[in-house]
Amino acid sequence: MATLLEHALDRRNFAFIFMMMTACRPAFASEIDDYAQHRAALIEEITADVRATASYLGRRALDPRVLAALGEVPRHEYVPPRERFRAYRNQPLPIGHGQTISQPYMVAVMTDLLDPQSDDRVLEVGTGSGYQAAVLAELVKEVYTIEIIEPLGRAAEQRLQALGYTNVTTRIGDGYYGWSDKGPYDSIVVTAAASHIPPPLLEQLKPGGRMIIPVGSHFLTQHLVLITKNRDGTLQTRQLLPVRFVPLTGKHD
Amino acid sequence: MIDACMDPTSSEGERLPIITIALVSAAALAYEVLLMRLFSIVQWHHFAYMVISLALLGYGVSGSFVSLTQQWLLARYTSAFCANLGLFGLTSVASYLLVQQVPFNPETVLWDWHESLRLLLIYLLLAVPFFFAANAIALTFIRFRGQIAHAYAADLLGAGLGSLSVIGLLTLVLPLSALGLVGALGLMSLLVSTWELRLARRALWSVLTVAVASALVLVTQQARLELSPYKELSQLLRIAGTDLVTEISSPLGLLSVVESKQIPLRHAPGLSLMAHHEPPAQVAVFSDGGGMTVINDGNAEPASYHHLDQITWALPYHLFSPQKVLVLGAGGGTEVLQARLQGVAEIDAVEINPQLIELVRGRYGEFSGHLYDQPGVHLHAVEARGFVATGAKRYDLIQLPLLDSFATSSAGLYALNESYLYTVEALTTFLDHLTPGGYLAISRWINLPPRDALKLFATAVAALEQTGVADPGRHLILIRGWQTSTLMVKNGAVTPEEVEAVRQFAAARAFDVSWFPGIREQETNRYNLLDEAHYYRAARALLGPDRRWYLVEYKFNLTPATDAKPYFFQFFKWETLPEILALRTRGGMPLLEWGYLVLVATLLQALFVSVVLILLPLVVLKRRAAQQNATHKRRVLVYFTAIGLAFLFIEIGFIQRFILFLHHPLYATAAVLTGFLVFAGLGSAYARHLAQVDRHRVGVGVAVLGIALVSVIYLFLLGPLFAHLMAWPIAAKITVTLLLILPLAFCMGMPFPLALDLLGRDAPSLIAWAWGVNGCASVISAVLATLLAIQFGVHTVILAALALYLLAALSLPHRGLHRANQLRH
User: Fold this and answer.
1) What are phi and psi of B678, to 5 degrees?
2) Complete DSSP assignment for A163-226
3) Do B554 and A221 count as a contact with CB atoms less than 8 A apart?
4) CA–CA distance, B378 with B324 (Å, rounded to integer)
5) Could you tell me the CA-to-CA distances from B353 to A242, B178, B359, B632 in Å, in that order?
6) Helix (H) or strand (E) holding B287
7) What ipTM score was computed for the predicted complex, to two decimals?
8) What is A2-240's CATH number?
């Protein structure tokens, strides 16, 4: 029964998205089919790409639910119209205001490292286009997301509402102090560049919770920092290269 | 304006427009330097380098263009000359303003090659002004081929003055206003030409030119610099409540000061995860839109400074109580504040940009708690290495904090920048200035896989060995947080008490220890977990018999930088490239050290365009008439390519040596560039006499011999000489530098005009082509010299130049060879 209901909801979602799109500009069903096809191809590509990396990141394989979530979220809705033609390429894209939407591969890896569970509550600092929040919303119970750049935050809020994400709450403002009245959180994503990790965010992490921080420039994520809060409240940090790469060529005896 | 020029009063009594040539050369060179500045501000330095190199191919395009159209253009020389001058002035400003409208971000090319079409558009737009300036000069060479040496001398002297004047301009006005003034200078050359060429109605056209020039200046006053939205400054200004309160320009960089009214800046890179306090209020200062440094509120609650004890470079203060501290790269003063809070009695702080010091003292004097005027704090507006090398004072602690921003550092964008702060010789100098038991502390950003910290470790080991330390491992401490690392080098052996203090300091802040004497692997890699203990293992390997093996096997270049190869940030290895390219879409893209690859890409593009530009006139001209035989053309090609390459090889090679002597990059570049151009101009003027008595071959022979002799002497002499004169005052050092450049540059000024003069007599139709060949070779030369210096060192660049000059001497086109061939046919 549940699956039937879900199915119905999905269909309604789809119809709703379709209506939104036609309201904004003339669109053709074939175009939407194209997007769906491209999205499927992208997911296939990422699946192949992460297979090797997953074990390197200390995981057996990437959670299929994460890939399924990526397959659900229409990335072309999160990029400016002029970038839509390449929305399903595995690359970061500019979204205006000096910000970018991450490379889907990187979104997959980061989301997977958070180990999202269906009853999780997640905080995101740096909403950007809202894409990462949407991917998380497919997987967890509640997503709270804060954006410091007002026009970006407003656009993301409208977009997420229009796409029917009722479990994402957005806010415009300074992410340094997190969102304490909604916390603590099972995971926190800090995508906004910060010179250091704000101590209040660490406090809002549940014991056993995880925080992920991509380090690098807007178009090139150099590495990921994964912080885990142990049951006793102590922190452990892992620095991860999101690629299977060993810096030494040979083994020496 | 073009019409004004259509009325040459006389073609016979025409004088060589020597002042015009000097002015247009001055404006073109000033424009080139200014473009470099503008692009470093709105984009990034490495990218600026590529764009301007490619734009300079405008000279090559001009050579081909004039080759093909010379008959038509020469028939109306005056109009063509004036038109090109006017167009140069106008397009110098217009091109840049148009380029600002092309949205381009270098990183996106890595993801999508289509983006390179925008890059192409930028090249094309910026090449236009250089094309017009070069046309004017090339046409003059042909028109006045009897006085080529004279014209070339004016060209070089003008360029020399241009390089000086742009430095003056950048001190007085903001970069965009300087652009307007340089455009106006270009138009002034048009004004002067109307008088030099005695045009009709010149008074009227002078007034018009002045009016247009004023308009250019006004336009740039109104225009705004469009920074890339991804630059640090643009990013901060997006945040509500931030305010760009002032901008201060100097040739050292454009300082932009940002205050944030609503949301505090909270700049504390490398902060421990254990820290709980927020930094005090801060004001941000950006240099060229990046490299943010902060001025801290000096009157805040003591707890606000807690963060200064929670970073990796707080470690020295936990090992001992230094009384004399030297901060290299003081910036907004964070490390000076840190030292004061630790109770240091005597602090020397070096900051290269005097305007930044003035900012902390003046406008933010009260805010900073008069930090730079506190008793015991001494500020020095000089270059860091030079300050240490020329001083006699010794310090308990020399702090070299994070000097660059993470974004540029992590992407390998500094690969092309010489840095004399992180070479083996630099570290040796620093160690020489430590009191017994004193420490040198150098902090770097963490990157993954590890690069900076490991190369620095290798450099410190080499420096310690050079100072005669038998067991370098006993003098070193390396710790790392999640974001930064600090390496400490002791003048003496690290004691067990100090080791214990390191352990406690690190554990309390969740920093990892990676090296100290007696360390065990189990102690390392505990808080910021890497897949293995890379830092510890690298340190162990670099200290032991495995060093050579490790340097070969590591996939990035960790070989210590030296003064002869001062490229600390060059981590690229060709062997690793295929693997990284294969991992491109799987998160491997950031592993590309693309600062170096940009340089290679620049060379390839320049080579491709050059070949097309050089061959094009040959193919077309061949169809028109077989005027010159193939041997002759081949000799012309080889000769002008060789001297075009060699001139800049020598110049770039020696600039590096002189930077080390003069230390201040600004003084060094200004003195060396101006010196080379002006003295080469004198050489060219002298060559005119040789040409008049038909002694071209002798002239070239003597010049090449002179260059070879002086260069070889300098290769051996400069090191000891500079060491001896290091402590002299800067004015005396500049004089010595100029005297040393004089004989070398004088000889270097001769081969080009002598050979052009020969062509003027035998094959004037080849003059423009030779000019184009030389233009292309110069562009390739600048890029190739840097690549060679990175790979083989500066000496190799100079030796290669000598070989090229020799090749040139051997391939100088024979006098009369061409005529004899014509007769035979």
Assistant:
1) -65, -45
2) TT-TTEEEEES--TT--GGG--EEEEEE-S--SS--HHHHHTEEEEEEEEEEEE-SS-EEEEEE
3) no
4) 11
5) 39, 20, 10, 53
6) strand B282-287
7) 0.87
8) 3.40.50.150
pLDDT at residue B95 in the model = 95
CA distance B269 to chain A (A): 5
Angstrom distance (rounded) from CA B794 to CA B657: 9
Residues from chain A contacting residue B586 (CB–CB below 8 Å): 49-50, 52-53, 105, 243-244
Structure token pair of residue B471:
């067991």
- B685-694 pLDDT, tens digit per residue, is 999 888 888 8
Q: Are strands B434-445 and B395-400 parallel, antiparallel or unpaired?
A: parallel
Q: Which of A191-207 are b and which e, b meaning 16 or more Cβ less than 10 Å from the residue's Cβ? A: bbbbbbbbbbbbebbbe
Rounded-to-integer distance, Cα B820 and Cα B226, Å: 59
- Closest to B280 measured CA to CA, from B295, B261, B259: B295
Do residues B411 and A220 touch, judged by C-beta distance below 8 A?
Answer: yes
Give the pLDDT score at B405: 60
The answer to whether residues B377 and B340 touch, using CB atoms and an 8 Å cutoff, is yes
A235: left (phi over 0), alpha (psi -120 to 50) or beta: beta
The answer for B408, left when phi > 0, alpha when psi is -120 to 50, beta otherwise, is alpha
Cα–Cα distances (Å) from B522 to A91, B8, B448, B496, in that order, read 40, 87, 21, 18
- Tell me the per-residue pLDDT of A114-124, one tens digit each, with 9 for 90 and over: 999 999 999 99
Q: Which of A98, A150, A252 sits opposite B235 (nearest CB)?
A: A98
Please name the member of B482, B587, B590 whose beta carbon is closest to the beta carbon of A237: B482
Measured at the CA of B400, the angle between CA B399 and CA B404, to 5 degrees, comes to: 150
Euclidean distance between CA atoms A188 and B669, whole angstroms: 49
**What single letter denotes the amino acid at residue A67?**
L
Closest residue on chain B to A148 (Cα): B239
| Region label for B443, one of left (φ > 0), alpha (ψ between -120 and 50) or beta (otherwise) | beta
Residue B700 to residue B242: CA distance in whole angstroms? 61
Contacts of B320 (CB under 8 A, 6+ apart): B396, B437, B439, B498
Nearest to B638 by CA among B815, B497, B489, B805: B805
How is chain A split into domains, by residue range?
Answer: 2-240
Q: Please give the structure tokens belonging to residue A3.
A: 């699956």
The two tokens of residue B714 are 């300098």
| pLDDT at residue B415, rounded to an integer | 59
Residue in B267, B273, B529 closest to A202 by CB: B273
Cis, bond preceding B401 (omega within 30 deg of 0): no
pLDDT tens readout for residues B124-155? 999 999 999 999 999 999 999 888 899 999 99
Asked if A217 is an active-site residue, the reply is no
Q: What gap in Å lies between CA B658 and CA B656, rounded to an integer?
A: 5
Phi, psi of B295 (to 5 degrees): -105, 120
Low-confidence ranges of chain B (pLDDT < 50): 1-12, 817-818, 820-825
Using DSSP's 3-state secondary structure scheme, residue A149 falls into coil
Q: CA B747 to CA B770: how far, in whole Å? A: 20
- H/E element, B27: helix B18-42
The answer, yes or no, to whether the previous bond of B449 is cis (omega within 30 of 0) is: yes
Beta bridge partners of residue A208, listed in sequence order = none
How many other C-beta atoms are found inside a 10 Å radius of the C-beta of residue B314?
21
Q: Phi then psi for A172, rounded to 5 degrees?
A: -100, 130
Rounded Cα–Cα distance for residues B659 and A235 (Å):
47
- Maximum distance among all Cα pairs of chain A, rounded to whole angstroms: 68
Which domains, from first to last, does chain B contain? 1-227 (1.20.1250), 232-296 (no CATH), 304-575 (3.40.50.150), 629-825 (1.20.1250.20)
**Partner-chain contact B553 A248, CB within 8 Å:** yes
